[in-house]
Amino acid sequence: xxxxxxxxxxxxxxxxxxxxxxxxxxxxxxxxxxxxxxxxxxxxxxxxxxxxxx
Length: 54
Fold this sequence. Notes:
Mean pLDDT: 90
Largest sheet: 3 strands, antiparallel
Structural class: mainly beta
Strand order of the largest sheet: 2-1-3
Distance between the termini: 5 Å
Low-confidence stretches: none
Oligomer: single chain
Shape: globular
CATH class: Mainly Beta
Number of domains: 1
Strand content: 15-25%
């Protein structure tokens, strides 16, 4: 299980617990579509997330 944390708001993206309509659980952070935004703060730049766990 991989997790990424938003460096703006500390939201944690967990590949097993996706919280975005149309995104299936198990979707890797780097494979998220271009329209994905952080559900907490709305940042759309995936580079603002850091990997925190495998």
